[in-house]
Backbone:
């Protein structure tokens, strides 16, 4: 086994972007975790009001463990909020909770990008580990066919990361707009809560950039970018 310095050249921009996005998300969340919303609503209550304002009453809201582990499970129609979001009345908690409620609204309204991402999940769960297996086998066995097969499988991971971007952006846009409409926060408070969502969105951008750069590295090693006479 050896370390390829060319890989570092490809992946470094994505790695640095990911570090910056992670730091910004945590620091912004901590900053606005100290600012209570005037409404006094907790994250769970804010999500419930946002859903009710959208006419959605069949989504469960429950607490879950982990820092910023918040997510919406479309198969169970359950919105799971981390402990720092579920019971907190901070602008940071409300912003995150309403973002996840935005995913539930996407699901209820048949948002196409969310449906595409959900459809890709089973394929990505299989393709992601298979990609590395075939790439390693192709490298050690000097088999171009196996290496290219691994690249194709990895392409599914890249596609998933790219499709995730509009899904996350739209959920945040809905949250920023609807949390004011539902009377959860004022417009000025929504701007502050939105800073948390903007920072969190950059983590998805960093993930997509890293996946894309990794794909480009594999293509480079496969000789796709080699000059031909």
Residues:
């Amino acid at each position: 086994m050896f370390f390829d310095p060319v890989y570092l050249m490809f992946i470094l921009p994505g790695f640095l972007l990911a570090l910056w996005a992670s730091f910004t998300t945590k620091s912004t969340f901590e900053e606005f975790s100290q600012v209570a919303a005037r409404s006094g609503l907790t994250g769970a209550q804010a999500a419930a009001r946002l859903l009710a304002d959208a006419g959605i009453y069949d989504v469960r809201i429950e607490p879950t463990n982990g820092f910023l582990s918040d997510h919406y499970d479309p198969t169970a129609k359950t919105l799971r909020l981390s402990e720092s979001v579920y019971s907190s009345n901070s602008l940071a908690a409300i912003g995150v909770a309403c973002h996840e409620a935005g995913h539930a609204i996407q699901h209820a309204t048949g948002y196409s990008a969310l449906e595409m991402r959900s459809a890709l999940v089973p394929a990505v769960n299989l393709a992601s580990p298979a990609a590395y297996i075939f790439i390693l086998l192709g490298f050690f066995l000097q088999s171009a066919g196996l290496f290219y097969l691994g690249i194709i499988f990895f392409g599914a991971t890249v596609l998933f990361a790219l499709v995730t971007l509009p899904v996350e952006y739209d959920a945040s846009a809905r949250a920023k707009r609807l949390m004011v409409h539902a009377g959860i926060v004022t417009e000025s408070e929504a701007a502050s809560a939105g800073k948390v969502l903007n920072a969190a969105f950059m983590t998805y951008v960093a993930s997509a950039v890293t996946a894309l750069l990794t794909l480009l590295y594999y293509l480079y090693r496969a000789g796709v970018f080699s000059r031909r006479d």
